[in-house]
Specification:
single chain; Beta-Lactamase; Alpha-Beta Plaits; Rhopdopsin 7-helix transmembrane proteins; four-stranded antiparallel β-sheet; 3 domains
């Protein structure tokens, strides 16, 4: 208590020293007014050159400018006597209105949620009403002793204003603490600066409440602190303005992800997700709290008639109405210092990428004219079947007169001839058959677990279908066939292919441009 008494005595001594020199007070407050005015014009410059983020900074400067100016020139203008009407009214207004604008400035800098008209009205009604009451009360009763007015009629108003000040400061603290929680470490410096400013204003008010200062000393303490706050907020704005705060806010970024993110416990239960709207996950079903992830995936397969992609088991294909969607499920481990805590599952729509993948696959493995498998797919299938699927039936076909049709009638007629024959082949091929176009006019069928009887039946059916066609442009299409059987894995596939090709060659007596491009490299 002795220390507090000494501080109070020091304040009284300073007040006495400055009591007789009113010009010193005027000089002090005019200096503070000029500084506040400089920050105000600086705010205008920022507003015009950068963005609307500085608009609340300008508003924050205005009451400080007005407050400092009135205290500086008030007595000279005959507006009252310090520490009477002007002094008390100015301090009262500063401690209610200025913190409110400070909170608005912090709000605009650290929150992506806009300050609505209702919010502004809610936070400004109290200080404006209190200031209006005090001004009317004091100026209507100038003939009454000041102490009587202050400690009698206005004591309740002073108490309300102090409570309001504390509420505003606590709201400002919460806004800054929210930033500290939401932002990464390297983006927190501006929040620390704003916390320093809020704390300085709080301490200045506590000091002025606890001690009894004479003349303008109370106003000087608060004015210096508010000017310092302007400087700190100005610096904080340039370190991290509101756009940077929004971009780095964890909550804001998490809620705006185009992907769906699940937090999964070590036991595999869904604990949290970023899409809270009931329709935000469409066409996927909405998850349930603590639902096992395995059950959720099963629900997708059952409720959405989803299928697992043949390319990757982590890709699910879903048909919703007339649209088809593809979703990729990617797992990420959540760990710290070698300890595993859970998982993040990222669900990204990859419909366009999957369509491109299938298109590339079609180009790589399908013949663009006939839609049959091409030579690339044939080479892979031979390697696959000759290792396990025995016996293997190899059927070779060579379209008759395709080259002559291309040379005489043109490639459009040649394409029509080829399409007509491949359509008949596709319709009559065994269900397990792999059908490929491996050359210009060469077709190959690989039929696992089949027999020569199946080959003869297939050839007969295709021949009958083609003989029934009589087209004015291509005539009656025909194709020469040969086949052979591979019974053991130890057999050489190329020998089997050559045997089938020789049979086909015997049938194709009039076609001399035959090639055996189906032979695979050893």
């Amino acid at each position: 208590m002795a220390f507090m008494d000494r501080i109070s005595q020091l304040g009284s001594i300073i007040s006495v020293l400055l009591a007789e020199g009113s010009s010193i007070w005027t000089l002090i407050f005019m200096t503070l007014f000029v500084v506040a005015l400089a920050f105000f014009f600086r705010g205008i410059y920022i507003y015009s050159r950068r963005s609307v983020e500085s608009s609340y900074f300008m508003v924050f400067c205005v009451p400080i400018c007005v407050w400092a100016f009135l205290i500086a020139v008030g007595p000279a203008l005959g507006l009252g006597d310090a520490p009477g009407t002007i002094g008390y009214t100015a301090v009262f207004a500063a401690n209610t209105l200025i913190p409110a604008f400070m909170m608005f400035h912090i709000w605009s800098q650290v929150s992506y949620k806009p300050i609505t008209a209702g919010s502004r009205a809610f936070w400004l009604i109290v200080p404006i009403a209190l200031i209006a009451f005090v001004v009317l009360d004091l100026y209507d009763y100038l003939t009454i002793d000041f102490n009587f007015v202050l400690y009698g009629r206005a004591s309740l108003i002073v108490f309300i204003s102090n409570v309001y000040l504390m509420v505003v400061l606590m709201k400002s603290y919460l806004l800054c603490f929210n930033v500290l929680y939401q932002m990464p470490k390297h983006m927190r410096r501006s929040a620390y600066l704003m916390l320093y400013a809020i704390t300085s204003i709080l301490l200045a008010n506590v000091i002025t409440w606890y001690f009894t200062f004479q003349n303008y000393l109370q106003e000087v303490i608060l004015a210096i602190v508010y000017i310092m706050a302007l400087s700190v907020f100005h610096k904080a704005f340039f370190i991290t303005n509101s756009s940077n705060v929004i971009v780095t806010s964890r909550e804001f970024v998490f809620s705006n992800l185009s992907t769906i993110v699940f937090s999964i416990s070590l036991k595999g239960n869904i604990l949290d997700w970023n899409k809270k709207d009931k329709d935000a996950c469409r066409p996927l079903p909405a998850p349930k709290y603590k639902e096992p992830y395995a059950r959720y995936r099963k629900r997708i397969l059952e409720e959405c008639n989803a299928t697992i992609s043949p390319h990757d088991e982590n890709i699910l294909n879903i048909v919703d109405g007339d649209r088809e969607y593809s979703f990729m499920f990617t797992w990420h481990e959540i760990s710290f210092l070698g300890r595993k805590f859970g998982y993040l599952v990222e669900i990204a729509e990859v419909t366009k990428s999957y369509e491109k993948l299938r298109y590339i696959e079609e180009i790589a493995y399908y013949d663009t004219l006939t839609s049959l498998r091409n030579r690339n797919a044939y080479m892979e299938k031979v390697s696959e079947l000759t290792e396990k699927e025995m016996p293997l039936l190899v059927i070779i076909g060579d379209v008759n007169n395709l080259k002559k049709t291309n040379d005489i009638r043109g490639h459009l007629y040649g394409d029509k001839l080829l399409l007509t024959i491949t359509d008949a082949v596709r319709k009559n091929a065994p269900e397990s058959a792999f059908v490929a176009r491996i050359g210009g006019d060469e077709l190959v069928l690989l039929v696992p677990n089949s027999s020569e009887n199946d080959a003869r039946a297939f050839i007969d059916n295709v021949t009958k279908m083609l003989n029934a066609i009589s087209d004015t442009e291509i005539g009656t299409p025909s194709i020469s066939w040969g086949y052979s059987m591979m019974y053991n894995i130890s057999d050489n596939y190329n020998d089997i292919f050559r045997a089938a090709d020789a049979i086909m060659y015997q049938e194709k007596k009039q076609a001399r441009e035959v090639s055996i491009s189906g032979v695979v490299p050893k």
